Every structure is written in C-alpha cells, then in structure tokens.
Amino acid sequence: MLRVGQCLLPLSRSYCRCVHTTRLVKEDPRWPGWNVVVGIEVHAQIKSRQKLFSHALTSDLSEPPNTHVVSFDAAFPGTLPRLNPKCVELGVRTAIALNCQVQRRSAFDRKHYFYPDLPSGYQITQHYAPLATDGTLRLSEEDAVVRIKQIQLEQDTGKTTFDPRRRISTIDLNRAGTGLMEIVSEPDLRSPEEAGEYVRALQALLRSVGSSDGNMEQGSLRCDVNVSVNRQHESLGTRCEIKNLNSVKFMMVAITCEAFRQIELLEKGLPVIQETRGFDEASAATFSLRNKEDAPDYRYMPDPNLPPLLLDQTYINTIRQSMPELPQETRSRLLAQGLSERDADVLMAIDMGREVGYDGVLGHGAVAYFDTVSRGRDPKVVVNWITHELLGQLALRKETFKENRFSTEQLGELIDLVQSKRITGTSGRMLLRHILTHGSSEMPSKLAEKMSLFVSASDSTSLETWCKEVIEALPEEAQAVRNGNMNVLNKLVGRVMKTSKGRADAKAVRNALQDLLSTKM
Ligand SMILES: Nc1ncnc2c1ncn2[C@@H]1O[C@H](COP(=O)(O)OP(=O)(O)OP(=O)(O)O)[C@@H](O)[C@H]1O
Ligand SMILES: [Mg+2]
Ligand SMILES: [Mg+2]
C-alpha cells in the first residue's frame, strides 16, 4: 500500500516534467555543452476599477500623485482590508485560462519588509496557500509546455522617486494596494527567446481574458527572471534572480548576459552564488543587488484580519462557462477558416496590442473586425482586403488600426460589390481610399453610384475604345510595347484606367492592350 501511495503522487507530477524534459532542446551555438534554464515570476496588475483591499480607484501613471489613496492604503491605524471580489474573479479567470487547479481554499499572509512606499511595513500576499496551482502554458513550438507553479493574489506597493536636485525622495501611494497576480512558472524555459515567447503568450492570454493590460513598458506587467546554467546531462544549477526588467527585449538581453556570466564563472571553477541581481540597460550587464546572506527575512505570517478565501464549485464553474476564446484557440480557428499563418498572425498581433499606439482592448481588435466582416463572406477574400488594402492604406496614412473609421458594414458592402463584379477591384480600392481620406460614413454603393463606378454592359465595348484611343494618343509607347518593352505597357494601362475613371478592370485592360498591340505587329 505504502509503495503505491508513494509513487502515485510523484508520478502524476513527473509526467508533466517528462513532457518537458524529454523534449529535444537543440544545442545552442551560443553556449555549446551548456543548458540555460529560466523560470519567470510575472507580476500582472489586475484590471479592476478598485484596489485589492480598499475602495480606492486604481490609476495609471498619468494621475497626479496621491490622488487615489484611502486611509487603508496609507495604513492608518484601525483600518481593515476588505477583499475586492472583482480581483478574485479576474484571478480565477486567469487561472482557468492557464489550466490551473483553482483552489477552493486559499489564504492571505503578510510578507514584511521595510520600504517607505509600503506604509504598513508588510505586503499582503498568498505565500502558503495560493489561489491556484499546477497550470500549463503551451508555446507555439509543438511540444514546449511551460508548467505554471502557482498564481497568487497580492498587493502592489507605492512608488518612491528620488529627486537628485532637491536631494529628497517623494512617495506616491496611487499604486499602493492595487491588486496583482503573481504568476510563477516552473524552470521550464530553455533560452532567452523561449522566455520572450512565454511572456508574450502570457500577455496575450491576460488581455484576452480581460484580467490585465499586461503592458511591460507601463509597468502593468513586471517580470523577475530566474536564470541558471548546467552542463548537459547534469542537474539544474544555482539560480540568480534578475529584477526590474521593463521590456521583453531587455529581458531577453538580460538572460543572455546572465547566462554568459554564470558559464564564465563555472568554466573558471568558481561557484554561482544564489542572489538577486539588477540589469543595466546601458552596459547590457547584470549586477549584484543582494546575496543570500543579506536576503531579507520576510517573517511571513497569516494575516489575522483576513479569513481564508473559500470558493464554491458553482462559482468556479460559472466563470469557466463564461471564458472567452483564448489566443491559441483563436489562431487555430483562423487557420481552419483557410487563413495563412501570416495573415492570422497579423490580425492577432494587432489584437494583442503589438501595433504601436494600440491599447489592446479586447473586442475592438482586428480579429473581431475580421469576424464581423467575414460573416457570410469568403474569409480569405476578407482577410486580403483587411491585411493588404485596409492596413496598407492605414500604414500609408500613419494611422493605427484603432483609429480606423472604415466600418465593418462599409468594408462588407465594398467586398460584395467587387466580388459580384458590379464594380472593379480598382474602383473598390479607390473607394476605400476615398472613404478613409474623407472619413466618410456613406456606404460604398451610394458613393459608387455618385462616382459612376458601376460596371455597365457598355463598359466592355468601351474597354476596346478606351484602349484604342490611348494607343493612338501614345504612339511611341505603343511601338515600344510592340517591340517587346513590357515595362512601357504599365504606362498605357495607367492611361486607360485614368480615361475609364477606374471603371475598367486593370487586368482586362492589360489583356486588351496586349491583344490590340500584338495583332498590329
Ligand atoms: N534552477 C533554477 N533555474 C532557473 N530558475 C529556477 C530554478 N529553480 C527555481 N527557479 C525559478 O525560480 C522562481 C522562484 O519563484 P518563487 O516565487 O517560488 O520564489 P522566490 O523567488 O524565492 O520568492 P519571491 O517571490 O520572494 O521572489 C520560479 O519561477 C522557478 O521556476
Ligand atoms: Mg515569487
Ligand atoms: Mg522571486
């Protein structure tokens, strides 16, 4: 009996470990003979209106200092915490999205440290009994699965800024007490690039479930990366934790530098000492902040003011049923609809807010736009219009997708007009440019009528007339084409398009001109 019991538990956990460690990690030419191992602690600000334990409103960096603070956030004696249910709900949504076990019972602890921007002298966190455990996040590479150790709810601190001119530090408590989710991965990442991919995948996931903006530059997502190296076939090495990284790019550089530093030490026969390190962007090097000996004694203790957090199964099930489509599901769906990987990635990158200036708000992104327009239409045709024509024109106009005023109704009708050959593709593109330039809310069919863009039966007879006129008007060019100079043909096509005011189809014009010019040869 004992033997069965002993192996049952470890087996179920080591299965996951097998999934990961049996995956073939190619030798990295940057560090032959070595493995680089990374585990990441992500602190994601919870996107709730109010803070984790007080009714103060959360804020962004644009607010004047100390305007979003109530007495609890400033640790006035006698104030008590009251758990914000919205933060719990968003934590549970994140946990479900990461395939975690949501714990029916979790609890809050005090983690003590003494910083001026932490007025109570402790942070309320979930050290001993976190909200969720044992999840997974799959990276795009087939068999790369990162295990999630746990998700815990905790408070953010305030912000201290040193003013060197006045030689004083100022404290802003706007952020103090804002809800955070600490998402801790197992040490399953095997390169700086994988670490980058993990953080990006997590950002996309948090945004899709609406639990965090996940913006590293603005501080709503912060990563501590733990790096160790070991010789192949040896067990994991000693980790160093690098703090305060504020972009995915710098995080990857920091991991690379740290890996080289540790390998150099070990190759010299020196040990790697477990410590917390910082990263200097200018010199691209990590530096020691504190080692194990000066590690603070956090004196963890259960928070006596907060009872355990008990969640019933119905509550968890209700949230499970209301989960939105997750990024990996969206991608698979788009591919199944016949989109190329590139087109799916373009739409999703805009959704994830990777486009500059786009805030990544779910539902206003390119995927939702595509979904609406492609209802009842050929998805491949629709995505072509979005990625090539619409995004192309927006880029020329230096506008982001968020600023796009071309409505889904307008694009849908425009595509129908072109597909049914009532207007030519050239007219369609011209209409798209016209609508964007004038910010027009008029429907394309109305505009096509006003601009006489509808293809009429007589247009095919006109086509020949237009071509003949142009050949007569540009005899030298016509001769050049007859002599085989096909580059000049474009000039003739352009002229016919101009004469036809875009009603002619460019391909048809090209064919007609070639026919006319070759018969006269
Ligand atoms: N050998 C290793 N190499 C790289 N990463 C490791 C290694 N061992 C553990 N890690 C990673 O270190 C992180 C430890 O985070 P955790 O929150 O559990 O503890 P901590 O860093 O000691 O505490 P704190 O939250 O106070 O920083 C995890 O992400 C884990 O995957
Ligand atoms: Mg941690
Ligand atoms: Mg840590």
UniProtKB/TrEMBL annotation:
This is Glutamyl-tRNA(Gln) amidotransferase subunit B, mitochondrial. PANTHER family: GLUTAMYL-TRNA GLN AMIDOTRANSFERASE SUBUNIT B MITOCHONDRIAL AND PROKARYOTIC PET112-RELATED (PTHR11659), GLUTAMYL-TRNA(GLN) AMIDOTRANSFERASE SUBUNIT B, MITOCHONDRIAL (PTHR11659:SF0). Belongs to the GatB/GatE family. GatB subfamily. PROSITE patterns: GATB (PS01234). It comes from the Eukaryota. Its main location: mitochondrion. It is found in: Mitochondrion. Allows the formation of correctly charged Gln-tRNA(Gln) through the transamidation of misacylated Glu-tRNA(Gln) in the mitochondria. The reaction takes place in the presence of glutamine and ATP through an activated gamma-phospho-Glu-tRNA(Gln). It catalyses: L-glutamyl-tRNA(Gln) + L-glutamine + ATP + H2O = L-glutaminyl-tRNA(Gln) + L-glutamate + ADP + phosphate + H(+). Subunit of the heterotrimeric GatCAB amidotransferase (AdT) complex, composed of A, B and C subunits. Residues 368-517 form the Asn/Gln amidotransferase domain. Keywords: ATP-binding, Ligase, Mitochondrion, Nucleotide-binding, Protein biosynthesis. Its EC number is 6.3.5.-. SMART domains: GatB_Yqey.
